[in-house]
Amino acid sequence: MTWSRALKQTARSGLTIERAKLTPVIAVRGTIGVAIVIGLALWLGNPTLAVSSAFGAFASGIATFQRSMRPRPVLALAVAAGLAVSTFLGYLAASHIVWFLLLLVGWTFLAGMAWAIGPVTGLAGTQTVAIMLVTVTLPTSVLGALTHAALIAFGGLVQATLIVVFPVRPWGVQRDALADALAAEADYARRLRHDPVAPFDPQPLMDARLASAVTPRQAKRRPVQLHGPRGLAERVRPVLASLADPVVGVPLNGPERDRARDLLGAAATVLDAVASAVRHARPVRLPPEAMATLEVPVSGPMLTGAARRSAYRLISLLADAVELTDEPVRATRPTTPAERGHLLRPSVPRLVPVALRALRREARWSSHIFRHALRVCAVAAAGYLLGTALPFGHGYWAPLTSVMVMRPDFAQTYSRGVARFSGTLVGVAIGGAIMALAHPGMYICAALAVVCVLLMYLLMRTGVSVTSACVAAYVVFLLGIAGAGWEQTVLERIVLTLVGGLLAMLSYALFPAWETPKLRDRLAEWLAANGRYALAVLDGYARPAQRRPRQVREALLDSRAARAAWEESEARAAKEPVRHRGLSRSTADAASAALGTMGRVTMILEAHLPGKDAEPSPGAAAFATELRASLERAVQDVRERRAPDWGALRAVWEDWDAGSGGQDVALRAADLLLDALDELAQALSRGPGGRNRAARGPERRGDGGTRGERGTAAADENG
């Protein structure tokens, strides 16, 4: 992608206004918190304190809107504490520009590194830099600095108190995450009726798993509906795929396929009903038609073999899902010993070592987080010096804009820069016009600031340009409380915002951290993770008595994480003005589809794992041994721009096929696994123009199809 096209695309995305689900009650609650803090400061007769404390309540309220599974009061208090500390330290160094500049550089670097812990932590770190830049411009003493810091912390305390006293839809985030996962399963079942190898996005299941992690205190209060359905959704998924698959499940045509379609449709109806019950905290309501379909026909079972086992398993799992969900929604139960060590969310003090490990992991030159931290602290220092040197007051607006728009990746930084400037232009124009025409007093300015906060909270999810307009008008009215002239505020805000945005964009052009060159490494990591998952499942066939479900589960989670990392990198690379010379867009798509198919086939293998009393499979053992060796070579080949060679693995499978008679489920699934690996090799053998350097015709298979005809219609997730 060229620079002009990349800039045009990011500018368009930054100015896009999205349709989002509004949360007026939550927005009103957050606005009341800001109004309480401003009103209290004005009642005490100190407009300067009103300006300072308002930022604390405002930023703490923003934190509670972020997509985090942490309790909202904890987020508000944590952000308020960080704001208070940064404010106090900023006041101590504000009188000496050198000391303040050193503090700003160090604090901004830590705030940039905070993105390694998570996006919510990164945003909170960005806000602490913003508050340091803004509040230290208000004159005060050391005792006054303590007062400002205490008021900022008080703003967060007010927001946390309002959340506790006036809860809005408790457990709503967790309910939505679980309901989305169940609804995604229902949609998957419907698509499988028409496409036996339909794709599935694992993100809803990953979000549901993240939401199910609770603190010990939360575990005692969690509603019954949030206890079991996620695990059932995880187990339903491979059963659905196994039933629909034309090789392991039912044939593509005939009465068995019709019966499978009916079962998949009924499963989708049941899963949708369970999702609705979880989302709205009400009992499950099932139509009688779906219940009748899930019963064994009077004429007897219509499915045979592996498909019949999958159908019985599906009916049992759906019954369990309804039974677990259709309980009194207010009932709770104590945490069992097994749950105490499973998906337990650490408390805030125990997060410290986790955060330190994340920071240490990203403290390397090749890390895009580390380069972002260096970039943002350099820009903040340059913007502060430039803003101070320019003949304007409030020079902090230049570094403030830079810090607020900069993100670890190119696309977000540029799109947010364009959106912030355009939104600021609209916001200061509206706010300045109101100030010029109405000349509002202190209390009217406070009321207008509160209205802007309400609009910002309400429209937060519609786009950066809209929220930037609300914030810009909010700042104009807030500084009007302290007596700042509107004409100076408007002019400074526009010019310095433009300067800050240009600095942020220029920094990424001069010191980039492109994601495109990392694509092959991400692809190799996904292949390695998929391979570990396949080996863990195949070991269950080779040594059933020694099968360890936890090992398979951990390999599955690693595979999902590797896929998510690949998709995130690919999405970032698609918006960058650079090109990967060894991995074209079509090659990346084909390789991604092949690895997705590999994960889907492994998931089907997992669905038919034998019991611990089953006979070991020598063929599966030999296949797993060769797969382990071939994967090590293949991962290195992918990194070094070579096409993997699976000839040795194909030879082992043929020996297995010759000795088994071709009726083994594991054998047939291993055949599909080989197809996916061959498709990966063919995709990576293509030249830059998308042509295959190793021209090979389709190889005929014994079942009458060509290699690649099955499983490549869509890429699926790894289990």
How would you summarize the topology of this molecule?
Layout: H1 3-15, H2 24-43, H3 47-63, H4 72-93, H5 97-113, H6 119-135, H7 142-165, H8 172-194, H9 203-212, H10 216-219, H11 229-244, H12 255-280, H13 288-293, H14 305-325, H15 337-340, H16 351-362, H17 368-389, H18 397-405, H19 410-438, H20 442-458, H21 464-481, H22 486-510, H23 519-542, H24 549-574, H25 585-607, H26 618-639, H27 647-660, H28 665-684
Helix pairs in contact: 1-19, 2-3, 2-7, 2-20, 3-4, 3-6, 3-7, 4-5, 4-6, 4-7, 5-6, 5-17, 6-18, 8-9, 8-11, 8-12, 11-12, 11-14, 11-25, 12-14, 17-18, 17-22, 18-22, 19-21, 19-22, 20-21, 21-22, 23-24, 23-25, 23-26, 24-25, 25-28, 26-27, 26-28, 27-28
Region (Disordered): 683-719
Family: Belongs to the YccS/YhfK family.
Pfam family, one: FUSC_2
Structure characterization notes:
The chain starts with a helix and ends in a 35-residue tail after the last helix. Helix 4 (72-93) runs antiparallel to helix 5 (97-113). Residues 328-342 and 688-719 have low confidence and may be disordered. The chain is globular. The protein contains 28 helices and no strands. By secondary structure, the protein is mostly helical. The protein has 3 domains: 3-14 and 26-169 and 367-510, no CATH class; 172-222 and 224-329, no CATH class; 516-684.
